[in-house]
Specification:
about 0% strand; Transposase_11; transposase activity
Length: about 90
């Protein structure tokens, strides 16, 4: 059995912010960037799942399901940017 250097291991429970621990500005900036990306992605999935009922998919083959998902996500992006698109069309 090989000896494992425990100093190099990083577990997920070590990344949890403990009570009284301070978060430095670099970590705060990283968290903010992750949250921005996560929010933008999750809004698209919310439209697809809640508005259009794309919660469960019947297996029709990977290609058909992938195409259906890609089209649904593309339409969700158009749906979410509809105000900006309409503003650019109107004078």
């Amino acid at each position: 059995m090989a000896c494992v250097d425990s100093a190099r291991l990083t577990f997920t429970n070590q990344r949890i912010r403990r009570a009284g621990g301070d978060v430095d500005e670099v970590q705060r900036r990283k968290n903010r960037n992750k949250s921005k990306i996560r929010a933008r992605v999750e809004h698209v999935f919310a439209v697809v799942k809640r508005l259009w009922g794309f919660t469960k998919v019947r297996y029709r083959g990977l290609a058909k399901n992938a195409n259906r998902a890609f089209v649904a996500l593309a339409l969700a992006n158009v749906y979410l940017s509809r105000r900006q698109l309409m503003a650019s069309i109107r004078p």
